[in-house]
Amino acid sequence: TRRIVLAARPHGEPTDDDFRFEEVELPDLSDGQVLLQTLDLSLDPYMRGRMSAAKSYAAPVEIGDPMVGATVSRVLESRDPSFSEGDVVLGYGGWQTHSVESAKHLRRLDTSVAPASTALGVLGMPGFTAYSGLLTIGNPQPGETVVVAAAVGPVGSAVGQIAKLKGARAVGIAGGPEKVAHLRDEFGFDAAIDHRADDFTDQLAAATPDGIDVYFENVGGAVFDAVLPRMNTYGRIPVCGLVANYNRTSLPEGPDRSGALMGQILTRSLTVRGFIQTEFVATQQESFLREATQWVADGKLKYVEDVTDGFENTLDAFRAMLAGRSFGKTVVHVAD
Ligand code: NDP
């Protein structure tokens, strides 16, 4: 297999020198294992965390090990009765062109409704994150205002559209006019604004005349600063991700604002609740797959994918995703 291993822990934005391409022999299959060829590799913000040694909810990738990641793969050889050659599956092959995996970690993909790559995005972990975090913690009610940033990405686009399906008003935030237009015209957000615009705070105020009931937190940073003063009493903030911080090497300069933040939480009776999607898998994965597949089939849940051709371009695509140069779910197309 060809694979990309972590060569050093990145400081700030990952550089080419932090990684190494390798060619290695895969081990022979044991019973219960399958040999997979990677077709599509998912690139996700959480991978930046795995490159760092800092303590988090999951162990870091060790130096010299291949980067982790979900993959859509084809079964080349199987030593498990539940899979046969040619099956297309969702696996966790990582940044490699081929992998050996245990059959019990794989799910066969049904491509009758949507292409297999959607198992990495709208019908996969990111879509599930939006569904479980929004409905369980955000609990949007008809007529309420839901705000989400990174709104063209797989999590944010699903948050906005599911909020609409529940009768709420969806306001999307993204970087640049093309993305803003896409939010409004393709995803059906009620309002869309550009976090890079000089008058972003004023635009947010104009887009949320009744305040904000649910802020689905994907980014942190300046967007959070603009949102917080607009939160309504009993507002809910599912804290899903803080992508504005992922390449940061230290906290931003400035006065300690934690007192003011706690003051807002107190006086407006806000609920701020972090989550990792895995906590909801056992109870909600089935209903998610059933409902979201139907929504996609009915055209009520749309998605956009940013597909980069060629395994050798994986790192560039990863950097682009974190920096906002991607347009939708980031996928590397590794083989046909
Ligand atoms: P995206 O594909 O949307 O990529 C991240 C996007 O964030 C960028 O493309 C960029 O888009 C935006 N962004 C980056 N920096 C900033 C900034 N400083 N201010 C505002 N926006 C910024 O990512 P996903 O949809 O895959 O993930 C979204 C979030 O959900 C991430 O924080 C991720 O870590 C989190 N997540 C959490 C999970 C959990 O279990 N808790 C599971 C899965 C994802 P733009 O051009 O719009 O600026």
UniProtKB/TrEMBL annotation:
Presence of keyword Oxidoreductase: yes
Domain Enoyl reductase (ER): 15-332
Keyword set includes Glycosyltransferase: no
Keywords: Oxidoreductase
UniProt-listed PANTHER family: PROSTAGLANDIN REDUCTASE, PROSTAGLANDIN REDUCTASE 1
Name of this protein: Enoyl reductase (ER) domain-containing protein
Organism for this UniProt entry: Williamsia serinedens
